[in-house]
Amino acid sequence: MSETMREDSVLLAVHLGVVHRCARRSDGSVDLIAPAGTVPPGDFERTEDGSFVQRISESLPEGLFTLSVDGIEHPEPLLGYLAPDPATEIRQVQQRVWPGRQESDLLRFPTPVLAEDDVTEPGTGSIVTDLSVSVVAAAPSGWQRISVECRALGDRLELRSRVTLDDDAVHEWSPPALVGHWLHRLRMLAYRPSSGTWFTAKYELKRGAPATIEFDDEFPEDGDAHGCFNDLCALPRHAQAIPAAMAQGALVAYGQAADNDRRSLGDTPPRRGKPYTLLARLFDGFTSNDRPYVYRPALPASEKDAVLSFLDNGRVVLSSRGYSADLLHPGREALVPMAFLTDGTWVWPAAVAYYLRQHEIAPAPDFVQHIRSRGYRPPASVPRFALDRASAMAMGRPEPEAAVWEDYDRAAYALADMASRFRVSRRRYGIGRVRDQAWCMVREGDRWAAFWYSEAEHRRELEHVFDTVGQAATYIMGQLWQNYPNLQREPDEVLEPYEVLDVPIPPSPPLENFEGFRYVKVTDLDVEQFGPPASNLVYAPGTTADQIVPVLHGDASPRRLRLTGEWTVVSCATKDGETRPGGVRAYILPQATGDYLNWGQIVELSAVDGL
């Protein structure tokens, strides 16, 4: 039994008891398409082609699966379809899709449950009745007897259905998708941790008689290895209840995953898509009188405390001081906490833990799978991106990243400012990008990685991963401070304007009038100054007034000065103006020339000095 998804399959979702065609998106959401001929609720929006669509988290539907049919060109999977003649064979396959499942989950072998007393055997009579209602509603005209054989393992559910008509002809039949989903519900509720659940169910309905159903717990001979593994992940059993062939198949799948993981060591990791958060549903739906219902497998008693610990120790992203009513006992005192928590990947209502404690209602199966894959331990910290995304999801708002990118701007400014003050070459650090032979800070998923990168060796050194951009920038600044003597600019390295610490002092014109900035060393340099000694901008000897960028105000008459001794100053050139060419050499001093005149470090030259 293979779990490979087929190209000719259609993706369906069961949400609040209704089967929808849907489209899965890369941001963790699905677009539900309202069934044709129905009036959808107000949450659906009309599209250009006239259909109604609702976008929700892909974890909110009770069931998400692909459906394919062998033997016929199925025109509409939501409806039943009868084979045209007794010779045509039909097989329907439903393949479950698990929101949030990662390939790395295959590297954690499913743990058998401990010996424990199972909870009371659930009554499945009502489900069989509801199954019969769905069967009869779509049964072909003239039916006398309908039989459905369901084989299930892991994520795959296979149906072979036959209809006996009033002329005693037997035709195969592809029932509506909801029929298979009722059998999936039945299998989930039949699960007991000590014994597992059935692999085959045989349902039969004769006109005028009650339906009958038989279950077979015998493991199928053609059980697929990955099906064995996935079945034990979703429905863990006591070791004595695991058939030998099933355990062997699960080990084969686990071994293949481990081998593939070893082979990929050293390979460049595949580029991951943008991270997203999944919302755990509290219930699977509501009856016509607004009573909630769930169709979920029981949670083994040995897991309950560990799952509750995970649920209680997530990061709170939205809370209220009040409490809400218990929807299963409306007459009770309102004790259900009103809060949302997250681990960075999922966000869940605090009520999930309440209903598990008080009513033994397990979290949604896909959420339980996630908790198991994390070893029942919430992370020690959650990235800022994930916290903001979870908070927005809890409030039903769009994902906000503007505030986080404001943090990025502040961190990038602080890092660049620190590097400039220590005259670290910008070739030696990368903000938001990877640069060779440099300290780099880049976003990876919801976190920020900081490291030294060597392109020749394609290697990161001293790498650390942080939850916030501020933490990553602080780490890089520490490395720059510790290593700045070896990270200095080259003598003639051109600077960006933000790297220039010594800027013109008014009434000198601002920095944007100049270009080609460099820090240079000069000795006994003669210069021209236009403007008062309160300015720190000077020009190369011989510069005339019509060549300079005009001063903002005050006297612009020139005077010749000499910078005595050795100096380190900013050298630059004027940009082209509307009425003058650029390229005139200028220098920016650390302080006003008047200060240096008072200290004797600058002298004013007179005609006696050869002017």
Task: Please sum up the structure shown.
This protein has 611 residues and is an alpha+beta fold. It is 23% helix and 29% strand. The model is unreliable at 1-5 (pLDDT under 50).
Describe the structure.
The protein is of the alpha+beta class and 611 residues long. It folds into five domains: 18-61, no CATH class; 62-177 and 197-263, no CATH class; 278-395, no CATH class; 402-486, no CATH class; 497-609, no CATH class. 23% of the residues lie in helices and 29% in strands. It has eleven helices and 28 strands. It has helices at residues 125-138, 177-190, 225-234, 244-263, 301-312, 351-359, 365-373, 384-395, 402-421, 469-483, 593-599; strands at 10-15, 18-24, 29-33, 45-46, 52-57, 63-70, 81-82, 91-96, 143-153, 156-165, 170-174, 200-206, 212-216, 278-279, 285-286, 292-293, 315-324, 336-342, 346-349, 429-431, 438-444, 447-454, 459-466, 514-530, 537-539, 558-574, 585-588, 602-604. The strands form five sheets. Strands 1, 2, 3, 4, 5, 6, 7, 8, 9, 10, 11, 12 and 13 form a 13-stranded antiparallel sheet that branches. Strands 24, 25, 26, 27 and 28 form a five-stranded antiparallel sheet that branches. Strands 14-19-18-17 form a four-stranded mixed sheet. The protein is elongated, with a radius of gyration of 36 Å. It starts with 9 loop residues before the first strand and ends in a 7-residue tail after the last strand. The model is unreliable at 1-5 (pLDDT under 50).
Which keywords apply here?
11 helices; disordered N terminus; 611 residues; 5-stranded antiparallel sheet; alpha+beta; 5 domains; 13-stranded antiparallel sheet
